Amino acid sequence: MNSLGELERAVLEHLWAVGGPVTAARLREVFADRGLALTTVHTVLTRLEQKGFVVSDTARPRQFTARASREEHAAELMHEVLGQAGDRQAALARFVGSVSADEVDLLRQLLAAHPEAGHRTGEPGAG
Amino acid sequence: MLPATAVSLAVLAGLLAWPVPAALARAGWPRRDPLVALLCWQAVGLAGGLSIIGALLVHGLAPWGRSLPAAAWAVLTGDPASSRVRGDHWVTLTLAAVLAAELLGVLALSFVRTARTRRRHRAMLEMLVRPSGVAGDSVAGVTLLLEHPAPVAFCIPGARPLLVLSSGMLAELDEAQLAAVVAHERAHLRERHHLLLLPFVAWRAALPVLPAADRAHDEVRDLVEMRADDVAVASLRCPEPRRTLAAAIVAVAGGAGGEVPAGALTVTGGAVAVRVRRLLAPARPLPAAGRVGALVSALALLLVPTLLLVAPAVV
Questions:
Q1: Which ipTM score applies to this complex?
Q2: Quick check: is B102 in a domain?
Q3: Cis peptide before B285 (omega within 30 of 0)
């Protein structure tokens, strides 16, 4: 089955693997076993371009390249989620927000000060 | 003369603009029962907006009638004002309209904008994460594994919620800790914490001059985390759930260094220590009377401005 989402992923995987510019006609040959029409390949490439995964040049025929590697996209996404941008609420609820080095030391001390169950002798209430 | 309703609403609005949120933020009990505290914060936010807009409306419409329903009816049916309409009536009416438009507008805008960002993040994740990247062993369900060295866990709420763990997270934590993190994120998704936070995000943006808006937002954000901790701990099957989750928090906090923009450092730092402390040395839960008292207060906070607005004038 050739769902658009699955095709997009396959095309992007291919562009990542090639690492250089590829034409739509060439992509159709690569995916010959799927029997794609050239317009379908173009649709997929356009959608990838709109989503910011693919860039094309003005050569004839047009050549398509992955804009960034998978790792770079992952870093970009992480940066948005971690960052202070106005968007950060979108991903909400990171497990732990950013913590300074001093704070990390304090946290480690807290954890060390509370030995595992069984070693515990009466404990004071919460601070 | 000012209608008594307008004066009462203005007093209430004044209390909700600073003393009440300040007291609630300072209080110790919210940490013992984050869920009840979250409900109280929702009531404070809603009642605050209702009372300030209500006060302006009631005063502005006073020439048409002594209560809001009577005055609104007179305006709608085209009855003339029974007393002279002065400048201050127009000013308060304009203020009420501007404030209502701003609060609701920013809320809607904030909603649309976060929905769009989530869609984009979701689309990115769908392209970036290989189907085999779904972490199926330790954690079932729609958990995605994103290749990234920083230990990060977050969730994208929505109709098809996604839970994302970074490969750095998997490397940093053991099996039980990972289960604790997943349970924490699941709690956010299941209890729709993003909806509890949304109005406070929006109103902080809408009212930058109101320090209480800032404070309320930070407080609600921290309480949501504590609530998720509590839910996670209750659902964990490992021998020491509280310590396991605390250890996971400390491990992730320690591993996040270097990846985080400097400006973000002080934002949540204090709250993380509070979370770890209350996990390791839990305070006694709030007694039933305290819970009921807090909930009744929250309900009263909502009922008072509502009744003042809809009740016919008594004075």
A1: 0.73
A2: no
A3: no
Residues of chain B contacting residue A97, judged by C-beta atoms under 8 Å apart: 264, 267-269, 271-272
| B214-231: pLDDT as tens digits | 889 889 988 999 999 999
Nearest-by-Cβ selection for A99 from B261, B269, B281: B269
> A84 CB near a chain B CB, below 8 Å?
yes
As a whole number of Å, the CA-based R_g of chain A is 25
Task: Suggest the residue from A3, A96, A114 to mutate for an interface test with chain B (most B CBs closer than 10 A).
Answer: A96
**Mean pLDDT across the stretch B184-203?**
89
Size of interface A-B (CB pairs under 8 A): 186
Query: Considering only alpha carbons, which residue of chain B is nearest residue A106?
Result: B273
Chain B CA closest to residue A95: B153
pTM, full prediction: 0.84
Instruction: Give me the domain span that covers residue B306.
Output: 1-85+297-315
Question: Are B52 and B192 members of one domain?
Answer: no
Which of the residues B127, B132, B284 would you substitute to probe the A interface, choosing the one with the greatest number of A C-beta atoms within 10 Å? Answer: B127
Give me the number of domains chain B comprises. 2
C-alpha–C-alpha distance, residues B5 and B21, integer Å: 23
The larger pLDDT score, comparing residue B271 to residue B297, is at B297
The verdict on B123 and B251 lying in the same domain is: yes
More confident call, B139 vs B49: B49
Mean pLDDT of B204-210: 84
Separation of alpha carbons A91 and A95, rounded Å: 11
- Beginning with the edge strand found earlier in the chain, give each strand of the sheet holding A63-66 in spatial order: A22-23, A63-66, A54-56
- B117 vs A84, A87, A96: nearest CB: A87
**How many Å lie between the alpha carbon of B249 and the closest alpha carbon of chain A?**
7
Is there a contact between A126 and B282 if contact means CB atoms under 8 Å apart? yes
List the single residue in B146, B252, B273 with the smallest CB-CB distance to A106: B273
Q: Looking at residue B15, what is its pLDDT?
A: 94
Output the pLDDT for position B137.
39
Residue B138: C-alpha distances to residues A44, B135, B151, B182, B239 (Å): 35, 7, 17, 10, 17
How many CB atoms are located within 10 Å of the residue A42 CB? 16
Q: Kindly list the structural domains of chain A, giving each domain's residue range(s) and its CATH number in brackets, ordered by start.
A: 4-66 (1.10.10.10), 70-113 (no CATH)
Chain A residue with minimum CA distance to B249: A96
List, in sequence order, the alpha helices (H) in chain B. 4-17, 19-26, 34-60, 68-76, 87-128, 167-172, 175-190, 193-206, 211-235, 241-255, 265-280, 288-310
Interchain pair B154, A53: CB under 8 A: no
Residue B232 within any structural domain of the chain: yes
